[in-house]
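Section 3.1: Structural characterization of target chains.
Under the original work plan, the team committed to producing a structural model for every single-chain target entering the pipeline before any wet-lab resources were allocated. The record below documents one such target. The sequence was received from the expression subgroup and is listed exactly as submitted; it comprises 637 residues.
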Amino acid sequence: MLRIVGLLAALGSPLSRADQQQPYQDADDFFLADAPAVLTATRLKQPLASAPAAVTVIDKAMIKASGTKEIVELFRLVPGMQVGYRRGHLAAATYHGMSDELARGMQVLVDGHSIYNASFGGVTWDDYPLLIEDIERIEVIRGPNSATYGPNSFLGVINIITTDTAHDQGGKASFRAGSNDYYRGMGRYGGSWRDLSYRLSFLHQQDDGLEGLYDARRVDALSSRFDYRLTDRDVLQYNFGYSEDKSNVGDKGDPADPGRSAQANLLSQSFRWTHLKSADEQLVLRLTHIRREKDERFESLGMPIDNLTLTERLDFELQHVFQPFDQARMMWGVGSRLDRTRLPLWLGDGDDKSNVLYRVFGNIEWTFLDDFILNLGALLEKNAYTDIDVSPKIALNYLWSDQHSFRVMLSRASRMPTIGEQNLDVQKTVHSIIPVRVRTERTLKPVEVISVEAGHHGQFFDHTLTTDIKLAHQRFRRLTQFVLPNASEPVLEYTSANVANSLNAELQLDYQPNQQTLLHMGYSWINIDHDDGSHIDYAASAPHHTANILASYRFTEGWQTSVAYYYRGAMQYLRTPAPIGAFQRLDLIVQKSFKLADKQTLNLAVVHQNNLGSNDEFLEGEQLSDETFVEVSYRFE
């Protein structure tokens, strides 16, 4: 498999070049409407005002202004999202709570392919081989979208779109150092040869983690993208990434958990063929392969533990976009996925467990009476554990004027239990991980959410100010929980039965009166209630209030200053021992660019993060500290 895909990579992958006039359009530009536009809501290119969902777009300007180098940190800019680091570097990013550190309800895509973990769900943000410098934009769907991207798009969808290699030529190198022995070095080069363009990026990063914890880590990663123009109508894209992550986990003050070391190797590759049949019709074929191995050896209460795990995914998808009749566009597709995992500690043996899934999906967008847009979509999925699951969605947008649009949406979404959840059988308890025996006694049913949403999208002051207001109600069914069958048998059973209701309101504001000024603001209020008989406090899993502000201004002679403020109310992640207090942070960023010569630039940046007295990140009392970073970068074209 690797040799075949590697040969395809050597042949290249197609992409439109800026200096050539060709009839081809990149898949992300297909059906391009007036900016600002998004692709993720329905897989059809749509203006934000016509999208049937609440969307947050994080572009290159916001990424630079934020001063962050961790991709997961960018999601603090999304209303209603929570970001936390368990044990210092195990990042979790979820929307509206309802999550532990794995954030199983969030679907994450990179250039359209899913990087969702096959074993227990979520995304391993700490070692996925993707550099923040390679990102063009991120589109975040704030709400369920299983009708478009499958059952694991339960709470929201994150679509990370990397920069077209034809528009990212030349080299760049940077080095950042700061608090807690943090070091980050990056090198990148983009070039072209005939109809092939490419980008190679390398990263080395290390830090000591949080104070008082045994949580240092070191990551080395390679990320690459190749684009090859096969014909005027055909483009091939190949993404390849590899990372090695060495990390420590433990509590220096807990003799029962003295710490353990682990090494993880992750290989990710994806292939995409795009064929433009006509101006109104397009075919896209995607193949994805992700493999992660982790070797973890340690002692707990004097007992040696050898935990060598494997997670692997092979995914195929074919998508067809066309115009069935005037004023209508349609997208449909089919896909299949093989998930395989080996988790000896968690599943009771060293045998491989697998799951095969099949899916069919579609969406039609119909514009009628000039001002109304109707979106109908659905996805059907069948896997080895459950019956056919259907996720439908209906949405209506009313374009009241060029400046104002309203939307209503009704959908059903689900989250399929992972291989690890379905086969959970912890026979050898480990004090530092799970101190009691746990098993899944019966086949778990998909978790379900019924969502009703209303929203308004507005543009003011000659389109320099954009606002988005969202009101939503959600009803969750079959939420997973641990139960104790009887007092004489200390074995927890993993099952699904709970019901919860959520009511939330959000406001997002973006203001860019000129090329020098950027202002982004977000606020979210959420309230969750659930059955009193639950053993898990879902109501506390989401903070009542979250807020973010990012303001940036570019002065003359290369100076740029930014201020960012993040607030998250008190909450408690699922399956953690105690609630954590409110978190707030104030970031100050100063950057200066120097023009060294023609097409050569040197950039200096200082970033200071002040936690404003906050003590809790993911678990209670994790001793957060203020941090300062200095970065120097050099770029040539």
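The chain has one domain: 2-636.
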